[in-house]
């Protein structure tokens, strides 16, 4: 499976080891951490958009 992973230009680690990477494959959005690339989360574009919107609104700011 040839997946083209992308990461934010705002990743804090110059070596690319401290970032979240995204890819789209077979209609799914895939996510992984660059320092643990074998663990891949599968989701949909709709679910990811809902999560990002909630994060932008501060819904998760009080998590301990």
Automatic annotation (TrEMBL):
<protein>
    <submittedName>
        <fullName>DUF397 domain-containing protein</fullName>
    </submittedName>
</protein>
